[in-house]
Amino acid sequence: MPNYRYLGNSGLKISEITYGNWLTHGSQVENDVATSCVHAALDAGITSFDTADVYANTKAEQVLGDALKGQRRESLEIFTKVYWPTGPAGPNDSGLSRKHVMESINGSLKRLGTDYVDLYQAHRFDTETPLEETMQAFADVVRQGKALYIGVSEWTADQIRAGHALAKDLGFQLVSSQPQYSMLWRVIEDEVVPTSRELGLSQIVWSPMAQGVLSGKYVPGQPLPEGSRATDDKGGSRMIQRFMTDDVLTRVQELKPVADELDLSMAQLAIAWVLQNENVAAALVGASRPEQVAENVKAAGVTIPAELMTRIDEALGDVVERDAGKTAEGAPQKRPS
């Protein structure tokens, strides 16, 4: 069973392993598997579920809503997000304008089959909408009872600070940040984490396994496993590319003795590692098979001794990305259409 951690300075507790349904849904077979994975998460004691309106162009929310039907709503924490294009991608179908935020929350609630979400997140920073407009819209969403808490995703430390100040003036608070974070991708450690700690935000981190690379399944010089992220021509292979060098893959294999010492799989070690950071409230973990969920949950509650944390750092060496500027570098410069 996963433990529970407070989300930022709020009184909300979430499961430290949170189920993320960033999957491509479409066929009934995929939807049936997705539903089985959600039920496996519930069976494993996971109560927190993360999705977004853009995933599979709104279908992922629908699948999650259907999978959670019949569950006691008060026993769940449901998170979704707004920013990326949805629908036919018209001029107002993306971004964080008041129009798009208000329409998006209503669409998300309908698809999820609920009156409110526990956490509503700005999926990226919108350079084309005044931050005051966005924060006022979020304040209204909270006052209308459509979202209980507000968070952000992949915002820089400066953007978090500016958003936090406006939120405070408007009578609500930002409680979370959802960045990429793993043993290989530590760009939040120097700026985002200290700022969040100071202001009362927690991290809900995505890709703790670095797109599956930290599971150890990609071996240098060996063929890519069939059906893996690295062979996915729908975008998965592009996202994983930065980690698919012989140097990175060779160093990742050196983590196996550390995992063995803790009686963990390499995937479990990767999830447990991000949870050692006290500013991390939850690791987002998806699944393509129900049995993966039960395996991932075994990373909960693990304490990695300091000497093994040092060994991990030594094994990975200079392949770790630490540049705080990567958050801004990877952000959209204009609203997508």
UniProtKB/TrEMBL annotation:
Gene3D superfamilies, alphabetized: NADP-dependent oxidoreductase domain
Domain NADP-dependent oxidoreductase: 16-315
Keyword terms, alphabetized: NADP, Oxidoreductase
Source organism superkingdom: Bacteria
Record GO terms (molecular function): oxidoreductase activity
Keyword field contains Lyase: no
Signal peptide: none
Name of this chain's protein: Aldo/keto reductase family protein
Family to which the UniProt record says this protein belongs: Belongs to the shaker potassium channel beta subunit family.
The keyword NADP appears for this protein: yes
A Pfam family hit: Aldo_ket_red
